[in-house]
Amino acid sequence: METEEKKVYTIDDIARELGVSKTTVSRAISGKGRIGQATRERVLEFIEKHDYRPNVMAKGLAQKKTFNLALLLPKDYAVTEFPFFKDCMQGICEVASGHDYDVIISMIDGDDLSQIQRLEANRKVDGMILSRAVEHSMAQDYLKSCKEPFVVIGPEEDPQITYVDNKNLEASKELTSIMLMKGVQKLALLGGNQSFSVTESRYKGYLQAHKKTGRLVNEDMIFMNCENQTKVSEAVKQALEQGEDGILCMDDAICSMCIGSLRERKIPIPSQVRVASLYDSKSLEYNNPPITSVKFDTVRLGKMAAEKLLKMMGEETEEETQPLNYQVVLRESTQ
Amino acid sequence: METEEKKVYTIDDIARELGVSKTTVSRAISGKGRIGQATRERVLEFIEKHDYRPNVMAKGLAQKKTFNLALLLPKDYAVTEFPFFKDCMQGICEVASGHDYDVIISMIDGDDLSQIQRLEANRKVDGMILSRAVEHSMAQDYLKSCKEPFVVIGPEEDPQITYVDNKNLEASKELTSIMLMKGVQKLALLGGNQSFSVTESRYKGYLQAHKKTGRLVNEDMIFMNCENQTKVSEAVKQALEQGEDGILCMDDAICSMCIGSLRERKIPIPSQVRVASLYDSKSLEYNNPPITSVKFDTVRLGKMAAEKLLKMMGEETEEETQPLNYQVVLRESTQ
DNA sequence: CTGAAAGCGCTTACAG
DNA sequence: CTGAAAGCGCTTACAG
After folding, report:
1. Most buried of A177, A209, A219, B74 (most Cβ within 10 A)?
2. How confident is the model at residue A6 (pLDDT cuts 50, 70, 90)?
């Protein structure tokens, strides 16, 4: 029962102790190359018994791989986006570790490429995931110019770039349509930061739904860049003055602020104004009344990003063919 | 102007082209070992010109280092904790990359050690940072049993373990004292998840402040595990029925819910009830009225964690001696 | 089926 | 001050 330092074996030790060559040991482990059934089992057994784990760094050097991938996160994201990034991260980590890859995070600041360049110069990763595509981001252009494989999370117009995205446009269109069908006459839209692509997608969905049903959209029904309580309150005030009877919020944070503002003005939901959100959260679900909103499977989004990337890097992965989807959850706030 | 593949040099190439040995090149780069001024400059110049960057993985193998550190994040953290983790992450990444280290994230799920064991077995990191110490966490015990250096973010009673923490107890004590001095007669405490150490620290601060001023604390003034709107609303209701004239919330999320609940009941802040939070956020700052709260420098907390860890790993770092601190920001909600 | 050898791109005693 | 050589712990043609 002494606290003896457990010896950490190398492939050399194993070869010596077993009286075989390290080539053989390597083959038994990797499963590549021909090897006798008997020897393989002997090696595997020894490994199991002594809990040998190959040195990934050495393996990487020999194979010119790093077994790392990078997740590029914006440094400046707003509170409203936390749940999104956290879920992405979780999905990515899960599939990465399933392939014995690790994920290195790098927080990148707007158009400052230095962190990306550092990662690239140091050759510590085999591929990168760029989260939250900002319109006209330099990062994308830069990554394209490198040989490094990468996928972006978010909408992407460049057909040469691999991406995954939630169906924001479709979801927005569907929820808008539903609200119009339910009898909302004038539906205000409270949007987020206009430089984010997701804002644009949701906006388009809203427009298309109006077009489809032959409804007019007036400039003054659209309130963009609702990033704090003050902006939201102003928007709500103006919308009410204009007699809007429905408010569609682009995400849960905006929606929370919107609800707060309505409550302050003692405007009943849904009897005077129906409210819905294009991104769900617990606080909307548990609100009184519960708020209608769209649920995405963001963990899965992250997983798909990682799978796509691993595939580009030549890993074998059973990429899910089933497309990402969403659910519109109708709750009391739109009844 | 062709898109020629830029050759990626190795130390061997440089040695050959310069007619020196690779030992010399290595020395010129690392600055270790004696080397002639002239040769050093020749090498450095060549490197600069051809933008040579040493292969970190190879360097690592030779030095038995990985130049990675791991950040262990709980998989299940609540919305309320996002800003905290994000700021930590940012601080850690900043100092890590300053030392040419990268940070690998791993999301660990309660008492499931498998992810930690994987990291350890793969030897992909030189040290770990365990964020959010949960009371009696297995992770800590496990890490202690490994040789791997690690530091924890959060309070820590074990004197053998290195940790960094915000001064939650002190801050809680100070803010509580201030509220009592300002004339609050009965101060309710709305606390978070009781299994987190931070909850305990803040609770203690609240108690100590009462003791110091000779005030009694009644069981029924304490409301723990206020993790959703329902629980908070109940707590607020009960507190009001008991005639409390002050409410101290443990964090910004709890406080937001508390404010919402008060607003619904049309209880004016601060005239009927004074409200304060032990963790600040924009939404509290911009609330109407603005909410008194405590500001911590969490980015710096992350930095210090990383610095402490790097030091344990033998890196040279000018560790900041200045202790972490906090500011109590008195706003309208406690006037 | 198995192994000796070279190689991945660095570092570092050791000798000169 | 400089270099030849061994080594970090793996993989992988190549030969047998």
Report:
1. A209
2. low
Give pLDDT, residue B2.
Answer: 38
Assess whether A48 and A108 both reside in one domain: no
List all residues 6 or more positions away from B11 whose beta carbon is below 8 Å from its beta carbon. B22, B25, B26, B29, B54
CATH number at residue B197: 3.40.50.2300
Q: Pick the more confident residue, A57 or A133.
A: A57
Instruction: Give the CA A12 to C1' D15 distance in Å.
Output: 22
A209: closest CA of chain B, how far (Å): 32
What count of CB pairs under 8 Å joins A to B? 115
Reported as a single tens digit per residue, the pLDDT across B92-146 is 999 999 999 999 999 988 788 999 999 999 999 999 999 876 656 788 888 888 8
- Residue B311 exposure: Cα atoms within 13 Å on the Cβ side: 13
Is A217 within the bounds of a domain? yes
Asked whether residue A210 falls in the same domain as residue A315, the answer is no
Q: Are residues B266 and B319 in the same domain?
A: no
Å between B102 CA and C10 C1'? 19
Cβ-contact A139, A131 below 8 angstroms:
no
Instruction: Determine whether the interchain pair A286/B228 forms a contact, defined as Cβ–Cβ distance below 8 Å.
Output: yes
Is the same domain home to B207 and B279? Answer: yes
Q: How near does any CA of chain A get to the CA of B218, in Å?
A: 30
| Percent of all residues in chain A with a pLDDT value above 70, rounded to a whole number | 96
Contact B100 A122 (CB under 8 A): yes
A54 touches strand D (CB under 7 A): yes
Distance from CA(A9) to C1'(C4), angstroms, rounded: 22
Nearest residue in chain A measured CA to CA from B91: A107
Alpha-carbon distance B134 to B140, whole Å? 9
Alpha-carbon gap: A215 to the closest alpha carbon of chain B (Å): 36
User: Which residues have a Cβ under 8 Å from the Cβ of B186 and sit 6 or more positions away?
Assistant: B218, B221, B242, B243, B244, B245, B246
Residues of chain B with Cβ-Cβ distance to A75 below 8 Å are: 90
* Mean pLDDT value across residues A112-126: 92
CB B155 within 8 A of CB B201: yes
The stretches in chain B having pLDDT less than 50 are: 1-4
Q: What angle do CA A48, A53, A56 make, to 5 degrees?
A: 155
Q: How many domains does chain B have?
A: 3
Q: Which nucleotides of C are covered by protein (CB under 7 A)?
A: 1-5, 7-13
Residue B140 lies in a domain: yes
Strand, coil or helix: B291: coil
* pLDDT score of A207 more than 90: yes
Cβ atoms within 10 Å, residue A307: 23
Domain residues for the domain of A253 are 168-295
Cβ–Cβ below 8 Å for B103 and A100: no
Q: Does residue B61 reach within 7 angstroms of strand D, measured from its CB?
A: yes
**Would the Cβ of A63 be found within 7 angstroms of any atom in strand D?**
yes
